[in-house]
What we know:
17 helices, globular
Amino acid sequence: MISNIVYKNTVVQNLTAIISVLFAPLLFNTLFVYGNVYGLTFLLGAVYTQLLSLNKKGKKRIIYGICTVILAGMAYLVKPNFEIGIVAIAIVYFLAIFREKRYIILVFGTLLVIPTVNVTLEKMYSHEVNKNISLSGGVPKITYLVMGLNETSDGRIGWYSGYNDQSFLNNDYNAHKTEKVAKKDLRKRIDYLKKHKTYTRKIFVKKVISTWTDSTYQSIWNGPLPTWGGKINTDIMRIIYIKDGESKLYKFIRYGSVVIVWTIFLFSIICTLLYLMGKMNIDENYLLYAVIFFIGGFLFHTFWETKAQYMYQYTASLIPVASVGLYKVMDFIWNRIKGLRSK
């Protein structure tokens, strides 16, 4: 549906559907109960209604704008990392102000999503506490930043190490004490990274590689692994998970996914360059959103706690853009072939 707004062409929509099915996380994460999955659903809904609000007039614009704010709030509610997407939506609305000043209302509405959800949650917590149920302030977010700049026991940079939970436990589940300790640890780590610049460059390169080079984005790993006591109920899943990663079907999916992911990246770049050179028309609102969301996610997880599975939403958002780029290249090649035949 987003693709239909981005570039009205049946081939582009068909390519979007095909790439979406072949993009492993969108298939294997279907039954993965995790905030990223639900959050992405709500965020894509918010983006779709935003595009409608930018292309409609009158009451429909207001209705779709309200839907955008609500859906963005739901995305943030289930997974705070989607605040990156909310900021991207707000930027798109902000730039729309130069076309029509009325959009300023939607800019403020979108930016108010994050504090509104936070205040609502705080009131809910307060309500529970008033019922004599003890609730702490939760694990401070700064612990995830500390974790994102350190090495795990198996040598991975910035991946989950349990630092946040362990620090919270060591400080008797006191959020204030945990935050104080985390700030001290963060200062120590930053000072060390400043003094050892070669080491710092190496670990950030290593972190980016470990975060972005799993073409399945851990979507198969999230499934019913026998080594973790997972139950496999269908024959095709047994074939994928047999021999713990040595299955030919698993290897085909994994290496085939490399082709799909690089297809998305390559043709997204081509599409963006064609637009910047004025060679094609595309819904610039979505292109802007997708680029900001992807770059924002890349920069955020360069420093924050990371996992490959956190990245798939940023790549998935590029699919409608990549489909346009792929269509343009296919169309160019086809026209050249026809031209050669006519000669």
